[in-house]
Amino acid sequence: MTPFTRIDARAVPLPQANIDTDQIIPKQFLKTVERAGLAKGLFYDLRFDGEGRPRPDFVLNRPEYQGAGLLVCGDNFGCGSSREHAPWALMDFGVTCVISTSFADIFYSNCFQNGLLPVVLEAQEVQALMAEAKGGNHLVTVDLEAQTVVSPSGRTFAFQIDPTRKHKMLNGLDAVAETLQAAKAIDVYEMRQALAQPWLEGV
To answer: Is residue 193's pLDDT more than 60?
Structure first.
């Protein structure tokens, strides 16, 4: 997992509340366990019409938001089913941070397991970021070490994050990498266990 320290990214406003995981990545794109290539399905039914043509009025199809790396979203982002493909699709599209007033619990946890930073801010702060992004000023800075979000106009908003999750994000540790930090201790334990109870090893 790639460490997350700080990003300076173009922000996209998505003010709709309750955007669920089926809107983020529809069910027809869940047949793969590969993370690459899921960007094509991100917000598919919002980005494209029934003929597969881009909807010019959807924010991610507008030229001023091309190359966006950050979403500023409405309440309860990521609700619905617990598909891990949702953060995969966002990251494959180039989004590495999502800011909202609240997230669905499972989506929130899945973000941290995959290196996507979910940031919770107060409603007035999210509204301020959306207003600036809609106004044509899009560059937002998110500093995980300092736990701050800096708006395009220079306003600074502080956010809270669990210290353990912060450490994992800063160091690029998913569940597997975190376990491997204790690899030597695990090896010692297994050797001692094999000597003490060899029948467990089939010896």
So the answer is: yes
Task: Judge if 56 and 66 occupy the same domain.
Answer: yes
Residue 60 structural domain: 6-172
| Residues 58 and 135 placed together within one structural domain of the fold | yes
Query: Per the structure block, which two tokens stand in for 110?
Result: 């899945």
The 10s digit of each residue's pLDDT in 36-68 is: 889 999 999 999 998 999 999 999 999 999 888
Domain count, the chain: 2
1 located within any domain: no
Q: Are residues 25 and 39 in the same domain?
A: yes
**Residues sharing a CB contact under 8 Å with residue 4, sequence separation 6 or more, in sequence order:** 96, 97, 115, 117, 144, 169, 170, 172
Residues 119 and 106 in one domain: yes
Query: pLDDT class for 14, splitting at 50, 70, 90?
Result: very high
Residue bearing tokens 């003010």: 15
Residue 49 carries which side chain, given as an amino acid letter? D
Same domain, 190 and 125: no
* Maximum distance among all Cα pairs of the chain, rounded to whole angstroms: 70
124: which 2 tokens?
């007035």
At 88-145, the pLDDT tens digits run: 999 999 999 999 999 999 999 999 999 999 999 999 999 999 999 987 778 999 999 9
pTM, entire model: 0.86
End-to-end CA distance of the chain: 38
Are residues 165 and 184 both part of a single domain?
no
Return the C-alpha torsion angle 15, 18, 19, 22, nearest 10: -170
